[in-house]
Amino acid sequence: MGERLSDAEEVGGSKPPEPTTRDGASGGRDRPVLPLFLGVMAEAHEERHLLLSGEFDCDPEPLSTLRHSTSHVMAQAVKRLFPEVKLAIGPAIEDGFYYDFGRSQPFTPEDLARIEAVMREIAREGHRFERMELPRAEAIAFFRERGEPFKAEIIEGIADDRVSLYRQGEFVDLCRGPHVASTAEIRAFKLLSSSGAYWRGDEKNPMLQRIYGTSWLAQEDLDRYLWRLEEAKKRDHRKLGRDLDLFDFFDVAPGAPFWLPNGMVLVRELEKFARESLDARGYQEISTPLLVNKRLWVESGHWEHYQDNMFKVEVEDELFSLKPMNCPESALVYRRSLRSYRDLPLRFSEMGRCHRNERSGTLTGLVRVRQFTQDDAHIYVRPDQLQDEITQLLELVQEWYKVFTLTATFKLSTRPEKRLGTEEQWDTAEKALHEALRANGLAYSVNPGDAAFYGPKVDIDVQDVLGRAWQVATIQVDLTMLPERFQLEYIDTDGQPKRPVAIHRAIFGSYERFIGILTEHFAGAFPTWLAPVQARVLPISQKHEEYARQVWERLRGARIRAELDHRNEKLGYRIRDAQVRKVPYMLVVGERERQQGAVSLRHRTEEDLGAIPLERVLADLAREISSRAATLTVGRS
RNA sequence: GCCGGUGUAGCUCAGUGGCAGAGCAGCGGUUUCGUAAACCGCAGGUCGUGGGUUCAAGUCCCACCGCCGGCUCCA
């Protein structure tokens, strides 16, 4: 993770700090993996505990252990500064750790600085982490006496007779370990932020104050991580969206993006891509109403289960709602005529604009919105067609993501406790998903019990260049919801009506989120086929404007999105401007080019590539765009 | 929705009770330029919105809205 930023498309990015040579698999020449781990294991009883139970509060892997230990040191520092604070929990998490504290006052940035300073003192003091065990009842009494109600509550929920505590210096915490040997091992860390968090994650419980931090084995690793955070900030689609004039939000429509001309190019190109692909695969596109009478939502069950998220509108004493999903209306389309077994699979695709009343605090740029457009489809199949259809869908998903150089991860979610449908139906559906994943040679993880109540699903995450995962696509088998609730049927070979199986699927997920992810993935430097402006013509001076205009006309004639920048500015200024705007190609023209019928080419990340005949540039550009190439190829060959 | 932070020019930000500021962007002029920022000038503001305190509010107080970081939710 974090090693993938060196792509050629990176524009104006700073160089990462020199990576440390050790990286888990790659040898680890000077990382103190072994000594640290031995330190963790030094105490014989802890080793025994590991061997016997394998139960720890964190992964006994060195980095998690270090982060978990850092959270204890932070808690110790907080207790030194604010003795009245109550301890809750402090786990290691990806890239760091947090600790939750019971305290009426939130922590200020100044508090964090003070806490961090005390943590460094504690590290200098070099306290050993010592494990001890107490009978359960004694431990409860111990924490009650120390005024730690949360800790006591945790132990009350533990079934074991004995619990383990860890001490470093004056600080004692309920903990299963493991820990590093001494606070002296905690060096490369930083507190990052504080926020509210509910006790045990339940909003009915009191709100605690959480402090997040990060901790690493070596200072270089910390520096590298902090650099990664900076880099992620530069790639933030909200910033790039504004800088590149892709989209904007206005406070009159929270959670609903306005697409600006540049961003709308992205939407249109993606739509075009999707339609070309789906048309070739037997999909039939439909479009259904946004505003629908409550009666439909009652029939679909959304009124019962999803009402709180729906925008309601009263029209002439009748209640309507903006659709939060497209499936019920797709079912109406299916149901409007008698279907034969020969008609299946029936694939209805829809660019479905949905509205969901997400709670205000959850809205985030394009990735969490109230109005979005799904690249939705509902596929109706006979049970015997299910597996083959899923197999094809997985192929399609991979084909699409490859175009965007995104790497997908597949997660299979299986039957939950509360579910509809027979065991036999679930067996068949889950087997179909397993087999389809295998048929595609895909590695996947399984989330038992995580499926929707109506059928198992495969969710697909993509990783962006910074290694962050985003859920985009989903393939959900629907055994009961649409088929049963809407009484869907097809006439089978025996002349009898049968229930089809429905598949709900989206590959981009939503255009909004997908464009947000692409923006971050490419850092705004989109492949040429997606780039809002594909080429800029730059005359050396205004004397060369006429030839520049001819070049520009040729580009536009070839339906290339081109601009002519003949502003009264020096060439260097205009080149810089095109670079900043991440325009893939700059075509510089002066007297020499005019005489040769050529242009001097420059890629957005590179130096002058020299004069190239205009005809060749046009041909190369056309090829690159029509093939939806991921990299810049014009003039290279 | 909850906890906290935040909101000043198109953008990035300064201004801590006493005349609303800078850089970039924009516009005008000079310059006519060979590969990442020429020079001079001009214009640009209900300081998120609404109340309040004060002789005086961008600044202090209250409420609301948006945004940011989390929590929760994510049929």
Tell me the layout of helices and strands.
Layout: H1 33-41, H2 44-53, H3 62-81, E1 86-87, E2 92-93, E3 96-102, H4 109-125, E4 130-135, H5 136-145, H6 149-156, E5 162-168, E6 171-174, E7 188-198, E8 207-216, H7 219-235, H8 237-243, E9 247-248, E10 258-259, H9 261-279, E11 283-285, E12 291-293, H10 294-300, H11 302-305, E13 312-315, E14 318-322, H12 327-335, E15 346-355, E16 371-381, H13 386-403, E17 407-413, H14 423-439, E18 444-447, E19 457-463, E20 469-478, H15 481-485, E21 490-491, E22 497-498, E23 501-510, H16 511-521, E24 535-539, H17 545-557, E25 562-564, H18 571-580, E26 585-589, H19 591-596, E27 598-603, E28 608-613, H20 614-626
Parallel strand pairs: 11-15, 17-18, 24-25, 24-26
Antiparallel strand pairs: 1-3, 2-3, 3-8, 4-5, 5-6, 7-8, 9-10, 12-14, 13-14, 15-16, 16-23, 17-19, 19-20, 20-23, 21-22, 26-27, 27-28
The structure holds one RNA strand of 75 nucleotides.
3D architecture notes:
The protein is 36% helix and 24% strand. The chain contains 20 helices and 28 strands. It has an 8-stranded mixed beta sheet. α14 links the parallel β17 and β18 (444-447). The longest helix is centred in the N-terminal third of the chain and has 20 residues, at 62-81. It starts with 32 loop residues before the first helix and ends in an 11-residue tail after the last helix. It binds one RNA strand of 75 nucleotides through β7, β8, α8 and α18.
